[in-house]
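Q: Hi! First time doing this. I have a protein sequence and I read that you can turn it into a structure. Is that right? Here it is:
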Amino acid sequence: MTNAPLPAQAAAEWLAALASPPHPLIPELKARFGLTAKQACEAIAQARQTPPTGTEENGGSRS
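A: Yes, that's right. Below is the predicted 3D structure, encoded as structure tokens:
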């Protein structure tokens, strides 16, 4: 068994790395990571508590 992150965790990490998240965000997370609306909201909440890394496309560091 691997230690792969759960989809909501992966979405939160991806989102935390973006300087400018896509809009609308919930449909993007649902499509990109296969999340439910509830999981997308949880990922957003988790991303807000994650220090920015600024390493993904669509971003540098968050302000």
